[in-house]
Amino acid sequence: MAPGSAVADTYEVQPGDSLSAIAATLGLTPDLLHALNPSVTSPDLIYVGQRLTVPDAGVPDTAVPITTVPETTVPTTEAIRLTHTVQSGQSLSEIAGLYGVSVADLVNLNPSLIPNALPVGVELVIRDDLSAPPDPTSSADADRALAPGSTPRLDGRNVIPYLVQPGDTFSTLADRFGTTVATLLTLNPRAADDGLRAGAVIFAPRSGGAPPISSGDDVTVTPPPSGAATRPYTVLPGDTASGIALEVGITLAQLRAANPDLNLNLIYVGQTLLLPSAADPAVTPASPGGSATHPYTVVAGDSAIGIALAHRLTLAQLQALNPERDLNTVYVGHTLQLPGPRQDGTPALPDLAVELTSYTVLPGDNATTIAAIHQITLDALAKLNPQANLDLLQIGAILTVPDIDLPPPPPGTVPAGPPPFPRYTVQTGDTLSAIAEKFGTQVAALEQLNPDIDPNLIALGDELRLPGTVPIPVASRTVVTEQTDGLTYVAARLGVLPHTLIANNPSLADSDWISAGTPLRVPDREGVVVQVTAGDTLAVIAAQYGTTVEAILRDPRSGVTDANALIIGQELIVPVSVPPFIWPASGDISDGFGLCRTSDCGVRHHGLDIALHFNPGGAVVAIAGGEVTFAGGTFCCGLGFYVEIDHGNGWLSRYGHLANQPPVAVGQRVGRGETIGFAGTTGFSTGIHLHLEMEHNGWLLDATNYLP
């Protein structure tokens, strides 16, 4: 038997389980659980139905002893209802691990739940002693019976997670959070049974001063009583709830308590919030160490908010200690004053000054950048994630980080995700039942997908999520050829470059001819069609194909409108750059591209003829800027006098049958619309006209596909 457990039992792996989630449920560290199961070759490789060895209610030898609590102080008649609001990127196993329950328990408590499709914003029941009697065989429910007539409840939004530190006891934590030992034991039944363990996560009330829990009590954070000192604040453009809290020197929990009827995730410009007055002693906690201060030198990666959080301060408190400093511009080497005497070792973790959330590691992430974007030090990130190896982060790993308003990610850096829900904008006269009927669904399904909407008070313009998924975007079509022809002329009829046709149909690379009945993939614009796979970002795709995110976004026909909203399985086009061409002269087209000049079509017209008989000697202009590579010719033969221009990136144009020697020279740079010659009928010509040829990478093109 491995150290840390006295009696062995087994656990069968369930869908959605991970080794870390199972360990959290059992109150163990992942390393200890892995040590108990040497047959598990990797903690990332467990499978449904696998049986793991686990301690039978055992306490690891490394558990931190808790302060002894008299039996009479432990409530035995409380009942709790604990809920959790699903955040973006959270999985059922992650939520189960966070609260120390199993995935099966969550499924049983939430019968309408679809485990593999958790909608953001849905409220999950984590524990519910009100709707079902306690299970006497459950360690969480043992000795806890609901008293007749009692209706206490606890909402998951009213508790805050806390990372247990070495030396913590229930008594010291009760003092720290301004609550009672009995309340902490009720919120953390597993810890009440097994003891506190350094590195474990427990829950405490968001606001202090909670009375002991007894039958019939409500464990809630109540709004300030009438007469409590508050002041109004009007929401300004760019404001967020956490930003307002930091700015005025309070915690987000205090802001919620002052505004219990408001959803602080959906504040709007002009809205009035109530702020607790600074005169309220609960708003301004005493500085650590009394009035003494000590200097702190800013190091690389620091930010004002990160320093404040690491030292249990609000931004306003840090500013008050450093009135001469502009905290928006702190630099390496700056000295800031912090409260309390200097202490050896690293600063303590933030507690009530910040809420915690989860962060999913993305491709390209490292611990330093994750710490920086969440405005904490690398040491603070390590303390928040004691089980994580920050030197070897795996894509998809879940880290605990401060819940702050992050800046939007750079364009093209968010990995592709599953298809989103369809959305519907409420119209005049709509009701939820009418909308449900219109889209063939149930009102209950709409309510679950839209937890922030009052089903009896939907308003004109409200946007609702609908069941199902949006269609996966495509950026190409399939065309079947009707006749055998050369690749050059098939591409011309399809309106794409031969190069584009080959890039999207690799089987064409070894032949200049395409047989009748051949299916061809044709993109909606010039370029290469790419099918997005899980983990792809637009920036990575752009780099792989030698282009930029901006170039892909420039044309909506590329299939991407939001650089950070790629959908797994969608098509997008990496574009070929096409110059903004103009017509070289004004006239009717007398002969088109590709016309047969012989009965067997062995000789074909390589260009476009523009009739200019009504304008002899009229100016001929360059269709785009470039460098002249030929200017000359003869009166008698071929194209007569002509000009050739290289436009770069494989594009070339040729202008034939000019009246005389062109007025430009080889090597000269010409601009779009600049005169390069005059209309004539030199060479093999039957009348005054301009013969225009276009090429790309040596392939002849139909100019009408590229001229406006």
Give a written overview of the molecule:
- With 708 residues, the protein is an alpha+beta fold.
- It has 19 helices and 30 strands.
- Strands 21, 22, 24, 25, 26, 27, 29 and 30 form an 8-stranded antiparallel beta sheet that branches.
- Strand 24 (626-632) and strand 25 form a beta hairpin.
- The chain is elongated.
Rg on CA atoms, Å: 35 Å
Based on the structure, what is the oligomeric state of the protein chains? Answer: single chain
Helix content: 10-25%
- What's the total helix number? 19
Low-pLDDT stretches:
1-8, 56-79, 130-157, 207-227, 278-290, 343-353
Distance between the termini: 79 Å
- Proportion of β residues? 15-25%
Integer average pLDDT? 75
Helix and strand content put the structural class at: alpha+beta
Largest sheet: 8 strands, antiparallel
Number of strands: 30
The best one-word shape is elongated
Q: Which features would summarize this protein structure in a list?
A:
19 helices; 708 residues; eight-stranded antiparallel β-sheet; two-stranded antiparallel sheet; alpha+beta; single chain
List the helices and strands and how they pair.
Elements: E1 8-12, H1 19-26, H2 30-36, E2 51-55, E3 81-85, H3 92-99, H4 103-109, E4 123-128, E5 159-163, H5 170-177, H6 181-187, H7 189-194, E6 201-205, E7 230-234, H8 241-248, H9 252-258, E8 272-276, E9 293-297, H10 304-310, H11 315-321, E10 335-339, E11 356-360, H12 367-373, H13 378-384, E12 398-402, E13 423-425, H14 432-438, H15 443-449, E14 463-465, E15 476-480, E16 485-486, H16 487-494, H17 498-504, E17 513-514, E18 519-523, E19 527-531, H18 538-544, H19 549-553, E20 571-575, E21 589-591, E22 608-611, E23 619-621, E24 626-632, E25 641-648, E26 651-658, E27 669-670, E28 675-678, E29 689-696, E30 699-701
Antiparallel strand pairs: 1-2, 3-4, 5-6, 7-8, 9-10, 11-12, 13-14, 15-18, 16-17, 19-20, 21-22, 22-29, 23-28, 24-25, 24-27, 25-26, 26-29, 29-30
